[in-house]
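EI: anyone free to look at a 99-residue chain?
SC: sure, send it
EI:
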Amino acid sequence: MSMNVLVLESVGSCVDTDGMVYPMNVDDTPDLNCGSDWLDTTDEWSESLSEEDAGLLNDWLLENNYSVDVDYSDEELMELEFLSRYESGEITDLDASLL
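SC: here you go
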């Protein structure tokens, strides 16, 4: 079986085109019995990821059109819109009453 994966040496893992992360076996093959979505990885895993591997992972996920389906509440959408407008400079005064 041939699998298209990106090896992330800094965390001893690989990620496939669906965004599933697998630990690497001693023989450098993915342990397909222990996969999880990269969004479900631990903080420890993320913090151990080297800058180079983090960049490679980001590029890999973009190249493979990885997306996340999220259901936000109306309140969460309003907050995200506000923060986006603040970060873009459209809103210059961070007024908590606007949240």
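EI: Strands lie at 5-8, 13-16, 20-23, 36-37.
SC: 👍
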